[in-house]
Amino acid sequence: MFRPGISLPGTDAEGEQPRPMEDARQPTAAERVRTLVQSSVSAVLTIPGAEAGPGTPGDGDCAARAVTPDGDVIVLVPADSPEARACAYAQDDDLAAVMEITDVAPVSVPHRIRGRAWVAGWLTPVRGEERAACARLLAQAHPSVPAAGTARRMLRLEVGEAYVDDLWGAEGVEPDEFAAAAPDPLAPHEAELLQHLASAHGEQIRALCLCRAGETVAPLALDRFGLRVRGWSAEAGCMDARYDFPEPVGGVPELRHAMHALFTAAG
Hints:
alpha+beta; Pnp Oxidase, Chain A; Split barrel-like; 7-stranded antiparallel β-sheet; 7 helices; 25% helix; disordered N terminus; Haem_oxidase_HugZ-like_sf; DUF2470 domain-containing protein
């Protein structure tokens, strides 16, 4: 079973994600939104009230996203999407839009959606001299995604407000908070790291959580402050545990030392 004092509550009657009950070192809401915006997880851009019109499934999908130094979000969308077509005729900042981001755990666990974020603001096309700078930002963030051209369009979302509802809780974010925040340094590698922990260090994860027979456990989330693990069984349902690192880590090399410390303490 999970160690006393570390376990977090299980899901409620509606099957929502477990939430922390105690104060813990954690990313701010602005950092969590910024991390999701700059990640490669699924995101969809919509214009409230706009008709979908003719198009292919997936219109509005953001193939890539990046954030400018001023805190605007640059998105790459299909050129024939309703958003790209509407934006082509928009005047200044009169086109309101919402981007919804869905974060799904990269390992198999119950209640696999870890959270969602919404970023609302005003949409304009990227034009003129801005195109080269925005294209570089997108290429740095998503080098494998084809650049804008005849099939894709770069749009700018000026952030008016943001909201996150995830493993840490639900909270709103102001534009200046979003612009000043930094994404988590482990985010670009998190999926690969969690999959490696699940496949190669399963017994160490079980030892960390003091699991009993019949209980299944898997690493659920990593950030610079610590590791979150999810355990479940037919009898006890679903439960999360959080293990803080001695110090926040700045990258994968520091993470190796932090994980070694956790596993050594558990052993």
